[in-house]
Amino acid sequence: MPRSTFTVTTVWRSSMHVQQLNLRVPGLVANRAGLSKRMLATAANVPQNLTEKIVQKYSIGLPAGKYVRAGDFVTIKPQHCMTHDNSWPVAMKFHGLGATKVYDDRQVVLTLDHDVQNKSPKNLEKYANIENFAHKQGIDFYPAGRGIGHQILVEEGYAFPGTLTVASDSHSNMYGGVGCLGTPMVRTDAAAIWATGQTWWQIPPVAKVELRGRLPAGVSGKDVIVALCGVFNKDEVLNHAIEFVGDAIPDLTVDDRLTIANMTTEWGALSGLFPVDEVLINWLRSRVLRLPQPHPRVSSDRVEGLAKLLRNGDPSLRPSTDAIYSKHLVLDLATLAPYVSGPNSVKVMNPLTDLAMQNIAIQKAYLVSCTNSRLSDIQSAAQVMKGRRVAPGVEFYIAAASSNVQADAETDGAWSTLLEAGAKPLPAGCGPCIGLGVGLLQDGEVGISATNRNFKGRMGSRDALAYLASPAVVAASAVLGKIGSPAELDGGAVSDNVELVSAEVPVDNMDVTPEGAAVATQVLDGFPALIEGELVFCDADNINTDGIYPGKYTYQDDVPRDVMAKVCMENYDSSFSIKTYAGDVLVSGFNFGTGSSREQAATCILARNIRLVVAGSFGNIFFRNSINNALLTLELPALISLLRQKFIASEPELTRRTGLFIKWDVPNARVQVREGAEPDASVVLEQKVGDLGPNLQDIIIQGGLEGWVKNEISKSA
Questions:
Q1: Are 552 and 584 in contact (CB under 8 A)?
Q2: pLDDT in tens, 343-376
Q3: What is the pTM of this model?
């Protein structure tokens, strides 16, 4: 069998063992990926959606006149970067990079929120190390008990409308509830931001989610996001940025928006952005009155300045009229009812009416987390429980999203109402939501929670069942001793189901690039302008990181490179190592690299001298680990469809040499797939891909993000 070659027109060298490229670039597929020739547009008045506009403001090093697009790789300098209990591992990585001083002490925020119930010497030492680091660096620090980091960032204005704020936590999507583009980063990214003020990001495809109608009485923001996760449960928004639009938004409170944005994470998205409107402005005004003034971020001048921009129709606060989106999903809120998610999956949505009739007994109920533990949530639960008691045999745990929220709830009287009903208070923090501290689900138990995740084993035993619902439904269930409705407490009947109305609207993303607006991407010295190799097809979706790199090797730090190469993909196909050669291009299905955060899933592929992985889509953590280790990735859903159709009648093979060759023209951001290695071979697929700018090229040249950071530090020394 002939070996393929990985061809480049430029040979480059790095300090890494494996010299490779890495990025994920969505392509245009059947007018659905929203990535067309316009991605390289640089002409004035080029349309942008709201996500692109915010990223434009926080991107650095862009060529003059460059308008960023979904699919582009950019260097971002976010307004703020938050880490929590993982701050000490980030600090150790920061020091390991040779950094001694945080680049911008006003950019970084540290909070302690995950394991706040743990009083062990080891955890207290870690917390002390984080606090000492914060004080030494002069950065903002919020101790254990102050609250969940995401809530603090919203309360204290770190997440401010029209800005970009990131966090080393998946629920940073929540900031979109206040019009702030929030997205998660991994620890290496956080360390890079600490050291240099910046990191890289690829702008995801952007989905428009239109919310129509008005919520019926008794239906909340939690029901909206549970419905979205349950109705559109085929990965429609996986690794997308979401922008919420529609006539329903003015009737959604900011707390409802925060809940919806928070759980766009579980829906599979990388951000969930609501627009700036009068509802948000009035909420900000209330925050000015609540916070001590002068406040460094939430001041009357800043809020009124934003209000003036809104009144004047400033284009930075809204998408362009002809902005392009990859998808358009519609949900009619007037057709919603209370819903329950689960058991053990956010993709399973049940009308409350159905579960209430099944008399599903519960042993635990939870009103905790950054999703639904704000004042309005606590008030909603208290209204249900006033004058009632938690059912015998049920434990009902409550924790405010922050100490400020708890203080407000105590002043309001809602907190004491819940305590008098028999609720068990916990300190403000993540607690049971992340499976830490007291009150976890035990074997065989059933719990209902107002949190964001009900994955098997997350809140305790893997042999327990976990459901998600709104605070009112959780409170009613705690009183009833079973999953049930507040209406049942007054002897009323549970409302009949209403047929939910939703739709996916076709989008037209034809080429809209102004004539002459597309320009060639600059290619740095030392970076290849052309990349080629034979496609080797592993035809499966959801190949997880254990399938790529066996877990038994994950925590062995001395695994030789040749062993890593040999065991690469071993758990998926034991013959992978004898079917693949240096320079091959690995191709797989959708959600490649899902699962754990092990970096070896990327580095073992590099150890085989495979420098490019193509898939229908990637798990986000694998994708970021790939770039951070200089492994090239490319999203081409159309190629997966083509390969599956081509070999539909062939004998199944876990790993198949296809005889097809890919050619990536980096300057022109174009990919071709041909039926052979010869220059005149027939082209079976050709499409535009995202702009791989010099910023990302430099990271690859330096052997990954850590190498790039070290180089930046050495240049500034």
A1: no
A2: 999 999 999 999 999 999 999 999 999 999 999 9
A3: 0.88
